[in-house]
Fold this sequence. Notes:
The protein is mainly beta. The protein contains one helix and six strands. The chain has a four-stranded antiparallel beta sheet with strand order 3-4-5-6. Strands 1-2 form a two-stranded antiparallel sheet. It is globular. The termini are far apart.
Amino acid sequence: MILHETETPEPVRIRDGVRVAPGETDLPPPFHGVHVAPLQRERDEIHWLQPTPRCTRVRVHEHTCECKATIYELCQAGGLTFIRRTVRGPDGPVVHEGPWLIAAKAERLWQHLLLGQAR
């Protein structure tokens, strides 16, 4: 590379241990999230309910990919954990919540959902 007197070299940038090429952004590349596995023949049924405002704040710990019409979120609020399901349709999104459980039970249910063993 030939530099003219008025130019200064671009500093070397490292992202995740790899050198970033000049002109590349420091933001991570876009990626898809986790996809839910196909539904298994034998599965648990999740009892979906209308959402109720139990807490002022809800924290989303994990979520499935935004590229699908149905999105699942593993949420925590008020010391309990639950799964939120959002179905995006032509009439707008429809939101339901699974049962509010202690974290260990909710995380097990989340894994079953991801593996197609619960819906």
